[in-house]
Amino acid sequence: MSSIIAGGSADVLEPVFLDRDGVINENVPAYVRSVDAWIPIPGSLEAAASLSTAGHPVIVVTNQSGIGRGLVEASVVEEINALMSERIRALGGRLSGVYCCPHRPDEGCSCRKPATGLVDASRRELGLPPGGWLVGDAVSDMELGRRTGLTTILVMTGRGAVQSRLCGPESEPDFRAGDLAEAARLILGARRTACGRTR
Predict the structure, then answer these.
(1) pTM to 2 decimals?
(2) Is 36 designated active site?
């Protein structure tokens, strides 16, 4: 489990947890193995930045079993995550943290989603308030959200369109959205409604 911290969380707004592959960048079936293979989904970096500038701590939680399978070096994943953070920062936002599980599914770790280790660690290390949102493209993301008390949004990018048909009682999302940009608008709209600025 690793993290990149881009500054502490100064607000008390609900945190937003984002999956990486299929939500922020294009999903690659054989894993994103190089910086050149990391291709942001149109509008995703801007969406992450908009959530951050609105005051939400934004945290990426990602399974990267390609490390444990020996298909990609941990240093390469860290380089990709650093580039992602830098690109969001260039848009005026920031990531409060990037938490990565490097283990294979058969290793039985506590951090591979839908296990709660990544969210638990980020809450502990960043001092995050309870509750919040989780945006992902997989059943495992939705299960993680249920287990950690997060409001879940399943996006149709990445594996989302296929995974949407596989959701069951433990993984049914609270909302569905076309992509991260739409999910961000939903989250920001919910905040405005809660603050009484819209009806």
Answers:
(1) 0.91
(2) no
